[in-house]
Amino acid sequence: MSVITLIKENHERLVALRRDIHAHPELAFKENRTSDLVAKVLEAAGIEVHRGWAETGVVGALRAGTSERAIGLRADMDALPIQEQNIFSHRSTLDGKMHACGHDGHTAMLLGAAEYLAATRHFNGTVYFVFQPAEEGGGGARVMIEQGLFEKFPMQAVFGMHNWPGVPAGQFAIMPGPMMASTDQFDITVRGHGAHAAMPHQGADPVVAASALVQALQTITSRKLDPLDAAVLSVTRFHAGEAYNVIPERAVIGGTVRAFRQEVQEKIESTMEHICNGIAAGFGVQATLDYRRGYPATINSVDESTVCRKVASELVGKDNVCTDLHPSMGAEDFAFMLQAKPGCYVWLGNGLGEGGCMLHNPLYDFNDDILQIGASYWARLAEHWLSVT
């Protein structure tokens, strides 16, 4: 693998940096220590630093030459509310908080690229290093955009990267079009009429109605959508009653909806509304749907994906760049950035076995062997996009 020599020589330092961040995880919008560390490294490299974006976000600006072209490279910084079960020396020092998704590695890789680009400046234009807070459900990307990220830092395209367990370490997966799904949430409150459990005919049972709803909702993806339109509707919550001998007044079910196209999201939401009304009428209860849009689908631009494939192929070899993996039903708030700017979101294989445990697992750890690969990819992408020739 043709990693950049200067980055390879800096590998042990990147490992130490990544493990330090891992040992001190911080949740959404509270990444204060991480933000301080990022700003310190950027400033030491001579990079212009802008802080306070979405509270704890940091943007570094590095200019070379005379071109007005600019590229944005984004890494996420936040951890998850998970109790780590690893026993290695760099395990989390904070109970109930853990870097279980690899954002510690993402931050370290982008810092490594920033230091290299600041030292060499073999490009013509501006590189914006976007260190984003609150990816894990907080929508930090959306907040940064609403605060004027792309107005303050005008870039022609923006790029993201995520480690991906299950893909061999150091291999890339880069596909145009959908990469990750949208993520919506819903709650349905079913209101009936309470009664003694021994005399159910005197009430209107919301538990039975809600149970019918759970079953009926599963027909949306199997019978109401085009089979070629991938979507998931999962009921994950069901709360009702407190006593064994009481039919409660209400039941509440909730869950998530995932899709790749906005038209599919809208079809699912409207069909859910119809099913709620029909079930409620049939059981003599009331059913109220609260449907909330979350992250949109992560959709890669075709031209930018082509550039990323070229850069990755030159770095690790064409055979180590996969272009036909299935997109994930997981979600990513980098999608907000791709709604505002063309760009591409890639997966970098985290490997199998040690360092390859699946994401959001208490035994997960980022694979340090890929730090120099990810940092080299970022650097080569910036140099290619802002070519001096």
Automatic annotation (TrEMBL):
Its cofactor is Mn(2+). Mn(2+) binds at C101, H103, E136, H162, H360. It comes from the Bacteria. One of its GO terms (molecular function) is N-acetyldiaminopimelate deacetylase activity. Keywords: Hydrolase, Manganese, Metal-binding. The Mn(2+) ion enhances activity. GO terms for biological process: diaminopimelate biosynthetic process. CDD domains: M20_Acy1-like. This is Hippurate hydrolase. The lineage of its organism: Bacteria, Pseudomonadati, Pseudomonadota, Betaproteobacteria, Nitrosomonadales.
